Each structure stands twice: as C-alpha cells, then as structure tokens.
Amino acid sequence: MKIIIIGLGTIGKTILKNLSGEKHTIVIIDENKSKIESLIEKYDVLGIVGNGASMDIQNEANAKDADVVIALTHSDELNILACLVAKKIGAQNTIARVRNPDYSKQIADMKDDLGISMVVNPERETANEIFNIINLPSVTQIEHFAEGKVSLVEVVAEKGCSLIGETLISLSKKINTKVLICAVQRGNEVLIPSGNFMFREGDKIHFTSNAKMLGDFLTEVKLVKSPLKKIMIVGGGRISYYLADALSKKKYAVKLLEDDPANAEELAEFLPRVTVICGNGTQHDLLLEEGIEAMDAFIALTDIDEENMIVSMFANKSKVKKTITQIKNDDLFGMLDELGINNTVSPKQVVASRIISYIRALANTVGSNVLTLYRLVNNQVEALEFSVKKQERIYNKPLKELKIKNNCLIACIIRQNEVIIPNGDSEIRLGDNVVVVTTHKNFDDLTDVFE
C-alpha cells in the first residue's frame, strides 16, 4: 500500500515506526526539515518538507496514488483541509486527527462531504480505554477481535490468585471456563507458554476468551475485585474531561483536581456531576485532605510523566485499589514494574493502534489477510486476526498434526457466530477468522504461522 503521513509529532512517529517494516510505500510530510531528514535516515521512506494541506505538496507526494493519507498535525483545521485536498486529488482513504470536541458532531454528520474516512481523537480514545479498565477492575488491558465476540485480556497474578503455582496442564483440569493463555510477561522477559509453564506471583498474563465468558474465568481464578465507586483524577486536560464526564454519567463518584483556576472553573461548569477541586494534585497534603485513602481508583493524567509516576506510587502506598497512570515517554516503561505501576495508558499508542488496525483492514482488500492487529508488551508481541479466504493445505486438519512455528500460538477460531478456544483436535476451515499470538513480526497471511 502507499501511505502518506502528514505531521510527524509523537503519534505520527509512532505510526511510522510501526508501519515501516510492513512492506508499504511510505511518504512523510512535515514543515520541520531536520525532523524529515532524521526520519529518512532512520526508515526507508520518502520525505517532503512543506505544508501537508497544500495541493502542490500533495501532488509532489503523488497523493492521487495513495491508498491512505493520514493527517496528524497539531491543527484540527489543517488536518481536515489536508484530507479534503487529498480526496480531491484522488487518494482512496483519509484519516484525520481531530481533538476539538466542538467538531465531533459536525464531522460525524459531514464525513462524506469532507472526504474523511476515519476521525481519531487521542484524548477521547484514551479516556475510553481508561473507562473500560475502571469497569473491569481486575483487568489491566483489554482488546477485542471479531467485532467484540473475542476478548484479549491482560491480568496480573496478584497474591491470592489461584493461577499462582499452577501449570497450564494442571489449570486445564481445574478450570471450567475455556480460555487460552497466550503470553506471559515476567519482568522484562516475554514467554509464549507451553504445557509445563508454571505461573508465579506478579506475572502479567495475556489470554483470549469468549467475551461473554470473561467474568466467569476471572471469578474461577479469584481475580474478581469489588466494583470501583470513588474515583480521583489528577490533571484537568481533555482526557480528564472526557473520562470524568463518562464516569459521572455512570453514577461513579468522581473528584477531579486541577491547579489552573480558570480551567478548574470551566470544568466545574461543564461537569455538574463531578466534584472539581482547584489545587495542585501532586501535593501530598492536598491529596490526603481530599481523601485519597478512601478512593477506589486513582488516575494520574497530568502532562508530566514523572509527576504521574510519583503520585501513582503514593496512591499505591495509600492502598487505593486501582491506579492508572498516563505515560507518554516510551523510555520510562522499563522501570514501571519495579515501581509497582501496573496500569498505564499512552495516548499515542492508543491512537496508533487504532490507525494501524484500520490500515491492516484496508490492506486486507488488496492482498493481506490481517483484519485486526494489536501489539502487546511494549511491542514485543503481536496479536493478529486473520481472515481465512482461500483453500490451503493446513485447513481441515487437526492442529496437533500441523507444525506451527516456534513462539506462535493459535489463540482463537471464530466460525460464523461461534467462538472456539482451540485444542489439538480443532481444525481451521475456509471462512473462519483465526487469532494468532506471536513474537514474530510482519505476518500478513495465516500460512506464515506454519512451517
């Protein structure tokens, strides 16, 4: 596919990094010459310095031949105009980053007129991810395949969890709910477990499950936690606004701490169900005064990673049941486990994942059979949903008779409306969707999984 990326900020660079090894033809456009030059040296891409909303610049990039143009500049208006221009020139699909909530409804009503195929709002997407984690207190991350029929879930084997000390073989004899353990992160090591693998306290466990059965499994392994009711949010940015609004409408008791008086006043006006406190949410005394020790969940959403980390550690020390921390700098992820920070969100990764999944779905129409793609454990593991389109030698045979590559796992088979958690006797058939978890990169067909 030919992909044009306009705007090389943190999200643009994250998408470029993820797409650069996937055999696409990529053109990058930015007004910052040094940024373009450094990325051309690092990746096999074509770079153009200039305004990505200019018709001349897009013609230079041959946007008329583009399968998708992604506009990710800091200006909503510029992104919308860039998509209009790209569509006018002849680009097949366009994606715009639009952050201003005032534009959301207008764009939804005018998407076709504007020529925009997909709109992404990093703050809203991140707020939605946090909202899902709050609704499932036992879960640290959740993704979906097959239009929501299959869940890919991350949990932590905390003290008291009945997974600890069990092997996959012994667990299968004790658990009634069918799930498939796909990957385990132990410290900095990532493992695709075999039958004799034994779980330890602190392991981060990824598994696939029929979405309807997820609660049953969490109950069986003693990972169900009591519902969260009292929520404290530190930082009054757009993510906090979207999140506090959604939580308060679901009857959560939300307290939001924001140190800018004008912003705090505005938030109080727009969020009548939320208790907005004007004050520095990173101050020890204020957190105690506002009752951090009585909170069920604490969410750190300031613009400074280090502040988020410190207040999250204090929340953990204060015995808050669930702590969620915004981290923007990838370099910090390596130290989070040792600091006891298990639940993190990164706006750029959330949006990049959505856009990459969309591009994979587009690629599916022009050769690739990947419907959905998620990258897990700091991009060390890929979870892919393949569409089984054409007859292959591997179909209609028990999986135990096939040779699967090392560090690959058939995690789920979706057959019409049936979700199959596979065993050795399961077969892949024409028309199925198949979820694979692997440490290999850049698979674009199910046959890549087999020797």
β-strand number? 22
**Assembly type:** single chain
CATH structural fold name of the largest domain: Rossmann fold
CATH class of the largest domain: Alpha Beta
Question: How many structural domains in the coordinates?
Answer: 4
Number of H/I helices: 14
CATH architecture of the largest domain: 3-Layer(aba) Sandwich
Q: Tell me the fraction of residues in β-strands, as a range.
A: 25-35%
> What's the overall average pLDDT, rounded?
89
- Uncertain parts: none
Largest sheet geometry: 6 strands, parallel
The whole-angstrom Rg is 23 Å
Classify the helix fraction into a percent range: 25-40%
How are the strands of the biggest sheet laid out side by side? 3-2-1-4-5-6
Span from first to last CA?
27 Å
Helix/strand-derived category reads alpha/beta
Query: What is the name of the CATH superfamily of the largest domain?
Result: NAD(P)-binding Rossmann-like Domain
What is the global morphology?
globular
